[in-house]
């Protein structure tokens, strides 16, 4: 069946399901893919051809530095495939054929450890001028010996002092400097503890206030005793290498949502590591995923929580825009403290324990007991989690968008005028939201996003502007990764054609303020912002995309909330920081005292609405009108 529309002529599956598996002609098995970082199918394949001429439109170069200044060359691309690691993390892997030598459509190296045709640089990573992240520069043997013995057990501050005194070898000096800079960043008193990931290929000044995974796991932040990694997609071998050598044998628990064949593969990946255990999250409702991205880090000096947006695979930490909330180092409570001791004004400790209890896993009980022993009172953010289930009564306000609604009704500002403030949603994937906006977006979700403190009247919700930020085709084409960046933006033609009404809300991805316009977003954020875009009423960073599966949808005449997936994020409210509103930080790397108390929104505001020629990125249709930044075109076959 063919259709003419805003996106040209589409040839689509005749399936009646909401969202067929991308690029697959098999009957649909899933209603939504939005919560997935990458939904992969195996029946078809994507071929990206190298085009010799330069792109018709070169990516714009910002006045500072962009990826065009990094000096990399456009590589030739071969059509050969490699049979390397196949990462775990998509439900379609459960139906995958056993022959892993087949090309995996839209799978980038962050999924598989291989390269797609567009990403293949014929080992050119070493030769083309690309600057590799430190994640791949280290071998297992580079940091054994002196570093391991000197950093054995002292406190973080003492470790920093000793690290500064020692003379690093040429091989690890850059990584040491980066770790010390990250330590200084944390010690500098950044009040919100909200960071972006470091991005390879942008100006160094834009990475000055950012973190990579090795920073987070650095000995400078604590002497690790054990850790838990909650995530959707894993490369176990890569993950283990991100830990410092002295911590790689420490107990590591991986919480995942894999089933059947993909679960078997994940167990095979973990088998060589005696310290690694696996915990399977229960997914009792169809089409749900374990999409939460969190680290629990137990140190000799204390305990830390990290809530972020990156999969535990190389490419998610390489050239994408990701978000990280890093907790303070929580101290241990005195022995004999009550169960309610160490609670914060945001009820974070209670909510974190309640979230872990929702897994109904004996394996996580050990960590619940650990958390009870620590003082989390310094936490200033609110936890917003989604856990699969159907909830009624007071239970339904504990999860998803109704949890956000409850918190806003209790703690949002009551100042007059804020009822007219616009709402922003920014995400990397979109679910099936219904035939028109009243089916969920404005009837449920926007009602939550525009909630004011109890007792405050507000305008009808349709009068409040809603700005949805999602990359255009041109955003993807001119990105650092080129078209393969679209492999992590799985908005399918089957879904898009059913909700053309949604595209009128769309705005381009632009992040000159953080130097990340060409680093495609995998971060998900939601906020309420003033009409002049200078103040924030609140801000959320989360794993939850724009989907009913992630945020929940009402059933039974609005008496029941149904959630399919595990998600986790944090809410920043000015009242928790003794402020009336957050000031939007316009110059994020100025280092001034004034900027320290303004909020670092990771993209440009006001957002720019799609023009007539802009189209949202749809990942399972071809793009052949112009090559990407690596000279390739995108051809799903």
TrEMBL record:
This protein's UniProt keywords: DNA damage, DNA repair, Exonuclease, Hydrolase, Nuclease, Nucleus
Residue ranges of the region described as Disordered: 1-177
InterPro entries attached to this UniProt entry: Tdp1 (IPR010347)
Location(s) in or outside the cell: Nucleus
Domain of life of the source: Eukaryota
Annotated Polar residues bias: 73-85, 168-177
Main location: nucleus
Pfam family, one: Tyr-DNA_phospho
Keyword set includes Repeat: no
Coiled coil: none
Compositionally skewed regions (Basic and acidic residues) per UniProt: 28-39, 53-66, 90-103
UniProt similarity note: Belongs to the tyrosyl-DNA phosphodiesterase family.
The protein, known as: Tyrosyl-DNA phosphodiesterase 1-like
Organism this protein belongs to: Huso huso
């Amino acid at each position: 069946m063919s259709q003419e529309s805003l996106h040209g002529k589409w040839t689509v599956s005749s399936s009646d399901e909401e969202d067929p598996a991308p690029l697959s002609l098999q009957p649909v098995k899933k209603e939504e893919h939005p919560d997935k970082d990458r939904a992969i199918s195996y029946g078809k394949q994507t071929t990206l051809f190298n085009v010799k001429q330069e792109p018709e439109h070169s990516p714009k170069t910002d006045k500072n530095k962009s990826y065009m200044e990094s000096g990399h060359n456009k590589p030739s691309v071969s059509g050969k495939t490699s049979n390397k690691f196949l990462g775990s993390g998509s439900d379609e892997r459960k139906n995958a054929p056993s022959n892993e030598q087949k090309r995996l459509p839209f799978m980038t190296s962050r999924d598989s450890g291989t390269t797609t045709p567009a990403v293949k640089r014929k080992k050119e990573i070493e030769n083309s001028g690309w600057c590799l992240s430190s994640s791949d520069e280290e071998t297992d043997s580079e940091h054994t010996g002196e570093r391991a013995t000197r950093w054995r057990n002292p406190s973080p501050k003492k470790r920093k002092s000793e690290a500064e005194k020692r003379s690093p070898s040429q091989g690890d000096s850059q990584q040491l400097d980066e770790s010390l800079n990250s330590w200084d960043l944390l010690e500098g008193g950044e009040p919100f503890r909200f960071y972006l990931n470091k991005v390879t290929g942008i100006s160094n000044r834009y990475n000055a206030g950012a973190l990579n995974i090795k920073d987070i796991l650095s000995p400078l932040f604590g002497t690790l005793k054990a850790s838990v990694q909650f995530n959707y997609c894993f490369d176990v071998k890569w993950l283990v290498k991100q830990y410092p050598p002295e911590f790689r044998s420490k107990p590591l628990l991986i919480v995942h949502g894999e089933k059947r064949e993909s679960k078997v593969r994940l167990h095979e990946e973990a088998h060589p590591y005696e310290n690694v255990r696996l915990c399977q999250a229960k997914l009792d409702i169809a089409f749900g995923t374990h999409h939460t991205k969190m680290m629990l880090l137990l140190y000799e000096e204390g305990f830390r929580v990290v809530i972020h947006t990156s999969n535990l695979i190389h490419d998610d930490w390489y050239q994408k825009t990701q978000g990280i909330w890093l907790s303070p180092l929580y101290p241990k409570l005195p022995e004999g403290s009550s169960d309610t001791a160490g609670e914060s004004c945001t009820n974070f400790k209670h909510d974190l324990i309640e979230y872990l209890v929702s897994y109904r896993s004996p394996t996580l009980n050990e960590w619940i007991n650990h958390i009870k022993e620590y003082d989390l009172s310094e936490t200033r953010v609110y936890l917003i989690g989604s856990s699969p289930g159907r909830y009624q009564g007071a239970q339904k306000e504990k999860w998803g968008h109704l949890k956000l609604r409850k918190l806003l009704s209790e703690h949002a500002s009551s100042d007059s005028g804020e009822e007219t403030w616009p709402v922003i949603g920014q995400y990397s994937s979109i679910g099936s939201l219904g035939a028109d906006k009243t089916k969920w977006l404005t009837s449920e979700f926007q009602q939550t996003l525009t909630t004011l403190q109890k007792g405050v009247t507000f305008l009808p919700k349709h009068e409040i502007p809603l700005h949805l930020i999602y990359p255009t085709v041109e955003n993807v084409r001119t990105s650092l990764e080129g078209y393969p960046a679209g492999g992590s933006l799985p908005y399918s033609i089957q879904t898009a054609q059913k909700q053309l009404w949604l595209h009128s809300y769309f705005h381009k991805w632009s992040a000159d303020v953080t130097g990340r316009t060409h680093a495609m977003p995998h971060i998900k954020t939601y906020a309420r912002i003033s009409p002049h875009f200078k103040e924030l009423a609140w801000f959320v960073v989360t794993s939850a995309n724009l989907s009913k599966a992630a945020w929940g949808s009402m059933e039974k005449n609005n008496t029941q909330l149904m959630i399919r997936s595990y998600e986790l994020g944090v809410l920043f409210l000015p009242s928790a920081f003794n402020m009336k509103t957050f000031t939007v930080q316009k110059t994020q790397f100025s280092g001034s005292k004034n900027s320290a108390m303004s909020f670092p929104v990771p993209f440009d505001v006001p957002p720019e609405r799609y023009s007539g020629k802009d189209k949202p990125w749809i990942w399972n249709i071809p793009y052949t009108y112009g090559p990407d930044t690596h000279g390739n075109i995108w051809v799903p076959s």
